[in-house]
Structure formats: structure tokens, C-alpha cells
Amino acid sequence: MEAPNKSITGAYLTGARSIPSPKSRRPALKGDLVIRGARANNLKDIDVTIPLGLFTAVTGVSGSGKSTLVNDILYKSLARTLYKAGDEPGAHTRIEGIELIDKVIEIDQSPIGRTPRSNPATYTGLFTFIRDLFAMMPEAKTRGFRPGRFSFNVKGGRCEACQGDGVIAIEMHFLPDVYVTCEQCKGRRYNRETLEIKYRGKSIADVLDLTVDQALPQLENFPAIANKLRTLQDVGLGYIELGQSATTLSGGEAQRVKLAKELSKRGTGRTLYILDEPTTGLHFEDTHKLLDVLNKLVEQGNTIVVIEHNLDVIKSADYVIDLGPEGGAGGGRIIAAGTPEEIAHNEQSSTGRFLAGLLAAEQGRPIRSAAG
């Protein structure tokens, strides 16, 4: 495992590869969101300042109040104000600075869809442009095929035996459904007439079977398509197929598809993204790619707030809010707030103690005194 030339995992274990700390921290120049009087669950009527335009990590031991603060109070309150959402926020007095953001988006590891019809192409909006492309082909125009003909969600061009799924679900009582390939279309999802329309020798089913890396050279002459393919590459998903069933994507892959969709949008630079322990189940390399994407969103002017225990993520943040000192009734207070270096110097912070060791190893000198 530790042979770095053979294993990516081994390279991280030996230190041949690592996730470096940023050379500098971004300054807070866009104002603040301030949560006043947060007192839901075990929070002790605290005021919390979240600088906008930065990457902020909310840390602390399990049960210290992180999820209550970020998910129950911050997200639900902003969603209610911005979208008229119905969920009741956790108890707090008010949030100041909401006028400085225009969207709040929660990105988690839940599936991008729960049926075989959901896939990266449909989720990111890429499929709309691919259908438009096939409808532009001379043969399609001759036959009167419009973009809807190339959808597997409506009757017309899809295989009706499997209703465009490419598979047939067999119900197993008391067990998850089993999927078998459709005998009629052999998993191609479309009927014969639709598959006869070709672009550069490929049917729409062939295009959906391409990986992102394979599709880009074929479709790079269409800016709307190429832009979305490049964002999928940027988040490290060049290897997934455009039409790959959502049910086969891992939680980390689903999360990065969602981030790719956000990256491909023309944003206002005033969006707040919330992620709750995004690195759960991720390999070191996947965590590295995730951090690259989060930093791209921040560079566009947006704000990232993550709840995290992973020290590689915490050291990469611009600003850290450390809750504690313990879980349950012994938590709910702000122990420290500031840059990772400032947290590392705080003698009261358990997160700081571990962060100090990590930063010291990178810098080759101790961060805290031996007594700390």
C-alpha cells in the first residue's frame, strides 16, 4: 500500500502526495452574516459571525451544536426568507446581513435521482442541448423529429417496453427491486427509428454511453455542451458516462455532479453554499478534488459554509468557527473563531490542538508551546 508509484492511497500515506494548506487566507471584504441569540437545542444564546465571500468551516466535537447552528438555524431561516420555505428554523433572535446574499443552496451526498432515468446529463441540463443537437440533424428534420423525440421520459422516441429506462424492474417482496436489461431495446432506451438518427456516426444512445472525457472531443464545437462537460471534468468526474444511472453513483460522485451543476451556472457571486460533512466516505484524492471545486465557487464571490471534522478541510478554510467544549449540555458555546492558524494557537480549542500538530508538520516548526 505504501508504494507511492503503484497506489494513490499509498502516496498519501507516505506523504508523497498531500493536500497542502493555502499559501494565504482570503480577507473578509464582503460583509458578514450574523446570527443573533442562537439558542436551539444545546446552543447557549450565542452570536455567530460568518464572513461572506470566504470558505468557513464549522468545527467541534460531536454534539457540540454544529448541525443545529448551520442546518436548523442558518439554512432554514435563510430558506424561509429567500424562498418562503415552510420549515421552522431553530430558536434564535434574528439573522443580520441576509440582504447581502440572493441564494442559499444545501449540497449533500443524497442521490441526484432515484430511478434509472436520472443521470448526470439530465441533472446538469446537458441532455437538453444534446437532444437539440440531434433534432438539428438533416435526417431528423426530414422525418419531422423534434427535441422531444430524443427524450426517454415521454412517448414517441423511447422504447415503450421499458418506458425509456433501459432496464425492467422486477419486484422482490421484502427485498430491493432487481433490474434486468430490457430485451426489446437491449438497454438502449430508444426505439429503432430514433436510433437511426446519427451525429458523427453515433446515435443518441451511443453519445449517452460515452464518458465525459470521450464526449468532449466529439461535442466541443457546441459551447453550451462543452461548458457543462468541462465543469464535470473540473470536479474530477471525467470517467463517468453521460447517461450513467443515478442509482449507480456513489454519494461523493452525486455530490460532485451537484457542484458541477452550480459551477456551470452564471452566478451572481452572492450564493451561500452549505455542506454538512461533505468528505464522509471520500478518499484523500476525492477530498482534494472537492476542495478545488469549493475554492472555485469562493473565487466567484460565493460563500461556503461546511460542517467538518476532517483536518485537511479545516486547514484549507479561510475562517473557522469552533464550537464546544464538549457535546450535549457541555457544548453549544463558541470556543474560538478565526483563521486556522488562530484556532491552532487557542489553548482552549480541542480542534486547535490537532490543527496545531498538522500545521506544525507542514511548516517544520511547533505552533503551540509544549505545555499547550
Which SSEs are present, and which pair or pack?
Layout: H1 8-14, E1 32-38, E2 46-51, E3 55-59, H2 66-83, E4 94-96, E5 103-106, H3 120-124, H4 126-135, H5 138-143, E6 167-172, E7 175-181, H6 192-195, H7 204-209, H8 212-219, H9 223-234, H10 251-263, E8 271-276, H11 284-299, E9 303-307, H12 311-314, E10 319-324, E11 333-338, H13 340-345, H14 350-363
Summed up, what is this model?
By secondary structure, this protein is α/β, with parallel strands linked by helices.
What does this structure look like?
By secondary structure, the protein is an alpha/beta fold. 35% of the residues lie in helices and 16% in strands. The chain contains 14 helices and eleven strands. The protein has helices at residues 8-14, 66-83, 120-124, 126-135, 138-143, 192-195, 204-209, 212-219, 223-234, 251-263, 284-299, 311-314, 340-345, 350-363, and strands at 32-38, 46-51, 55-59, 94-96, 103-106, 167-172, 175-181, 271-276, 303-307, 319-324, 333-338. A hairpin with an 8-residue loop joins strand 10 and strand 11 (333-338). The model has no long low-confidence stretch (mean pLDDT 92).
